[in-house]
Every structure is written in C-alpha cells, then in structure tokens.
Amino acid sequence: MPVDLTNRKLYIDSTNKLGITPQEVSLCLQDYRVDTNGNVDVGMMCSSPKLEEGKWSGHKPIRFNKWTKLTDDEFKGMSTDASQGIFYGIQFPAGTSAALNSSIFEIHSAKFTYLPPRGIAYNEPFRLDDFDGYHHYAEPNPVARFNKEEDGTLLGYRDDLKDENGKGGLQNIRVHYRDTNDTGVDLVAIYATLDNTEITDDMLSRTYPCILVSDADNTFNYFTALEYDDNGDVAPRPLKMNGEIAEADKWSVRFTKPLLSNNNVGDVQRSPFQTDMKGLKASIFLLESISTAGPLLSGNIQVGTNFGTHWIDVSDGLAASSRAIVVPDDNGVTLNLREYRLYRYFIPSKVSQGVSAFIVNMELRNESDETSVKSATLEVTLTTSNGNALTKTLTSSTSLLPSARFTWTELGGYVGNPGTTETVTVSVKTTIEGLSHTVTEQFNVAIS
After folding, report:
1. How far is 141 from 181, CA to CA, in rounded Å?
2. In the β-sheet with 435-446, what is the strand arrangement from edge to edge?
3. DSSP 319
4. Which ranges of 99-186 would DSSP assign to H, the alpha helix?
C-alpha cells in the first residue's frame, strides 16, 4: 500500500511507478486544490501549502534543475544552494552558520522557510518522484520543545516561587538528539559541514542545550545552559556524555541563577529575574564549547567555570565565538514569570454522613508564614465506590474553612446500606490568583 494515511507517509515502488497515483498523493497531503478542468496535477501537489508541515522530511519536492529522480545527496540541494543558506529545500536564517555571525539574541527571530519548486519557468521541474520516502511528521535532529501552556505561552516560576508540584523555573523541556534520523533533516550535520568538521562524540560532548531570554525590545538578553536531571543529580550536561545520549524530557532551567556580566567578568550579581517580568521571550539553542573551560564570547571573553551556573549577559549584542546552533520551531516563545507562589491551599480533612448526604469538611494548609487573606476558588469532586462523581465549586477565603454537601440524589441515588462502610474519594483543587494546587484523599465513611 503506497499511502499510510494514519501516519501520513507516502511510499513509491521505485521499480513500478504505476503503483502510486496523483490522487493518493493528494490524499496524503490533504490538499484538494484543482485546476480549471477539476484535476489535481503534479505541480499543485509539489507546491502544496501542506508541505510546510512536512518540511523537515529529507525527501520532499525541492528546487532542483533535473527532470529525473534525485539521489539522496541531490536532496541536500544544488551546489549553489549552500552559499545561499539553503539545505534540503529549506532556507536557513541569516547568521546561523556554525559560528553565529549575528548578535546572539537574533536567535529569537530565526526562521526556517521551506522553498517549494516553482516549475520549469524557473528551471525547477515538478517531480512526483520527490515524494518517494516523504514523511509528513519528520522532525529535525535535534528537536527542542518547551512545555507550553494551552495558549502557547510559557509560565515560569522562580525557584522560591514554585508551582503546585513544588517545581521552580521551567520544567520538562524536551531536547532530543538522535545518533540516526532516517526521515528528518540533521541540523548538526549541516552545521558541521558548514564549519568543515565532522560529527564526533568529542564534538557532541562539548555541545550544550542553552536557553536565551530577552525582553520584547532585546534591551536585555541573558542566556544559560539548561540543566539535566540525572536521577536527582541536576546539572548542565552536553548532548552526549561518556558515550551516552541524554534523554529527551529531563531538561529544565532555574531563574534564580546569579548574573555574570560581560562588562565585569567575575562580578557575581543577583539574578536578573528577581521581580515579576512580563513580555519576555525565550529560545532554545545549542552552544558548542571549544575548550574544557567553557564557551567563548566574542572578544575572547571566557565564560569559563561560570557556564551553566550563571546567567550570561549578552545585551550588548556580542556574538558567540563558539559554535552556536539554532534549534528551530520553539524560538521567540512568550514567557511570563510569576512574582508570587501559592502559599496556601485547602485539603479534605473529614467526610461524614449527614441526612441523606455526605459532608466534606476542609482545612487550610500553608507553605510559608504568609498570613494575608486571599480569595480562593475551590473545585471539590466527590466520587463514590460505584463510580458516580460530582463536582461543586465554592468561593472561600483563608479566614473561613469551607465545607461541601453532596446529597444522595445528586450522586445518583442512595449510597450504601445502614451498618456498612462506603469508600469515597475527594479531590480539592484550590486556585488563588491563577495558581492551582490539587489534593486527593480517600475516606471510609460509616453509613448509619
């Protein structure tokens, strides 16, 4: 079967081109544009806007002056493409060669643009063969993803301002590097080629995932190495260490790291993120250290042993002399930092049987000496042993301990028989000023 619509992969039998039809290609791309005669032609398929979603596939329609099937090397592009920053039919952003030539904060605006073929008028023939091996969901290597909110923004917590799970900073950042990437474009290989080097374990052992944080106008710009959780040992680490590739979802960053200024090397300042900061943006990139002491910034400013333990100030637009690799997609993401933490939350303390109802009593738990009263929204969910569940929403303050009443009727009928014990599960979600904390407990309630 040449088309796998579930995974949106397309296969062509290289010995029998009759095994694939234009209709099947259009189904794979889900692009139903037609010409004046109602047909879907090869040119339309090879220039489909849907191909932007699959641009990281190593095989796809590209601009190449050849009518016959391309070789794997030819899919990398024509000989003149590399000088223009075009690889695998993708226009790489300006200044993103292996040695980053532009200011490091321009990583935020770096774009990777797919360039589909435009036809014979441009010496760019449309080839159905270009779809041989096309993979719509291919990813670049490496790939980096922030753990974003539902609206696509980032919500960061300083270490002293933790989320409901007791975590500070940004957690569960995904940085995934693979030794082999059969379907996608290998960014590290491209940058290595540009810098006339080879991908070796030594190179990867000096290449660190980093995060750049700036304000909206690039007035201040700071970067630091991400930290990796190795079974509780949290520290910066390269993509590969002792021959082992780092796992994907164990990266994080702390906002309480002190600031190291390039203008005053060695002066340790307080973190630049001590107060609530709005309208920030963040990007992930890779930085290869050219010495064991850490990466260099332009002007031979040695970050040295402070690399990874401090925020580095690059607000003056200094470029990195070390090799910097822009990781596509999650760059320039909006970041908001919280200036407060959830100091208090409610937990279910007792469930008792009232007249034809369960009564859920709650108590207040504090995580600090904070005593001011703030309004709280409580979502109390009670689930009986037969699976019936009901949620009630309450509004309370820290000066009043709330309770919630769940009647038998609301729960779908009488629960339990007199003299028996009913097991109920109660979940309380406390929300104060937009921060939430959820606690779930089980109770055995005597039915009288």
Report:
1. 7
2. 389-397, 375-383, 421-432, 435-446
3. P
4. none
Would you tell me how many other CB atoms lie within 10 Å of the CB of residue 173?
Answer: 25
Report the run of H or E that residue 42 belongs to, with start and end: helix 42-46
Query: What domains appear along the chain, each with residue ranges and CATH number?
Result: 3-131 (no CATH), 143-338 (no CATH), 344-446 (2.60.40.1940)
Ranges of residues in the chain with a pLDDT under 70 are 1-41, 94-103, 158-167, 194-198, 261-268, 274-277, 290-306, 317-323, 338-343, 366-374, 398-399, 415-416, 433-435
Distances 197 to 189, 191, 204, 394 between C-alpha atoms, Å: 9, 9, 12, 63
Token pair for 268: 């340790």
Residues 6+ apart with CB under 8 A from 421: 444, 445, 446, 447
Amino acid at position 379, single letter: E
Do 20 and 12 contact (CB within 8 A), yes or no?
yes
Q: What is the DSSP letter of 107?
A: G
Strand partners, 252: 227
Contact yes or no for 436/430 (Cβ under 8 A): yes
Tokens of 70: 């391309």
- pLDDT, residue 100, reads 46
> Residues near 166 by Cβ (< 8 Å), separated by ≥ 6?
none
Place of tokens 């590209």: 62
Q: Are strands 435-446 and 389-397 parallel, antiparallel or unpaired?
A: unpaired
